[in-house]
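Q: I have two molecules that I believe assemble together. Could you output structure tokens for the complex as a whole instead of separate predictions?
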Amino acid sequence: MSCQKLYKFSAHQLREKLNSREIKSEDILLSLSERIRETESKVKAYVRLNGQNLKFSSQTPAKTDGLLNGIPISIKDNICTEGMPTECCSKILQGFNPPYDATVIRKLKEAGALILETKLNMDEFAFGSSTENSFFGVTHNPWNLACVPGGSSGGSAAAVAADEAIAALGSDTGGSIRQPASFCGVVGLKPTYGRVSRYGLIAFASSLDQIGPLTKDVRDCALVMNVISGYDPMDSTSVNMAVPDYTASLGKDIRGMKFAIPKEYFVEGMDPEIKNIFSEALEQIKKLGATYQEVSLPNTKYAVPVYYIVATAEASSNLSRFDGVQYGLRIGDRGQVAGDRGQSAENRLIDMYNKTRGEGFGEEAKRRIILGTFSLSHGYYDAYYLRALKVRTLIKNDFDAVFKDFDAILAPVSPTAAFKIGEKASDPLKMYLSDIYTISANLAGIPAISVPGGFTKGKLPVGLQILAKPFAEEVIFQVASAYEQATPWYNEEPKL
Amino acid sequence: MINFMQITKDTVKYVAALARIELKEEELARLSGQLEGILNFIDKLKEADVSQVSPTSHILTVNNVLRKDELKTSLKPEKVLNNAPHKEGTSFVVPKVI
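A: Yes, here they are, computed for all two components at once.
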């Protein structure tokens, strides 16, 4: 038995302690349970916790040589875990118990990780940038409980920041890993589209979604990527390319590397404090022997409109499966066998769909499904959806051009630090605009990370974003690790 | 903007019917205003010259992925039906349609 506060450690540190037999896996579980009991009433990162003791997929690791053997991992509520509820924080998926594990969960288990049965809070179906759209209520930012943790993987970021999780998985469709990682001062990576299997991730926008890690440091992020990456026959969009050892990129210097700074990111709407923090980060990068130069991504101004056409169109199609037949909520078909009550038979079925979906989806989900249905509907398809796909090509071409001459792009993650709970909740467009620096990476399919990059005067964390060309996660890890080693942000922790 | 898009409550009602979502009167009113704002912002896309551009529906160049046509075990019916709100034997039950 150990009396150390094991919950404070990163996964790789805990692996060392396990290897040297200083501790046992049970000690970590006990310590983590204790921490969650202590702080969860303030943070509310988990859902369906019900005050019970924590349950894990298994109490004992599967084997002894796995990369994450004995390490508890917490999971966002949209990644399927067999026999453990997965509800996308939506009323319409109430009680859903997946009949299979997502590929990432299978891989984590094979690596010896212990999966927490209680899942992490999120915006319903990942629709949001603040975790305020969850059926279960809002998660609080550990650095300032009056602020949002970001979203949609707000529960994942808040849990890692509050030491209520050793490491977590989230999903990123337009910034849903990176923005909460930035707001909560943790590391969060959106991998290249196709690097990680999406099998078992409840789909939001299939051409944009990627699963990725949220961790306490860059090494843990690389470690989790080593486990979850790779081709999966169950996801035909996953790519059959060898997975390198990402930890091999850590600790290398970045002398002589060339970085691009997109000038379009520094126009209106950026908080001056964010700009200052970013400039200081660039100074640090220069001290490390790298150079940077301003570049143009001329189609940046179209990124938010393209995203909100493409993402909602795909969502409206993906979410048609929630119809009250196969799983979750069902409303309005009582008396289905006896009598027709004046309705035609066909109308009774449609009525059940309408009522189930009207009742089961939250406000933002309805807004996005309707926007998506509109842009795909007869008469509007060419003007909106097809045009958006073409502008998406322009955005991708912008990135291709920059990566011919540069190793990576450096940028802020969000135009502001964490905002107050309720501040943007009533204005969807304002909320959408805050995704400006993150959504381009999803549209272009490229990998991007948020690493802690400093603090505002009000002591809110701010992330530094590093974007690279497709499948250049190794470059991202090299830069992120060098920057992390040279800066003190990683040592700070929120007072809870 | 040249063509200001107007979204009436009737438009929202029509699209909601396509999407099979029942909306309350106050939701119709709120959504029509919000969608109008969002769509007029999205109209910015009309400024982009896309005459020489082909659409990107998939970001990586992928070909059809085919597997061998061979028998494999799939999930057991009782496992699949486990989450069904209404079921009977090995079937999902829906309201009578004929």
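A: One point stands out. The CA atoms of residues 16 and 425 of chain A lie 44 Å apart.
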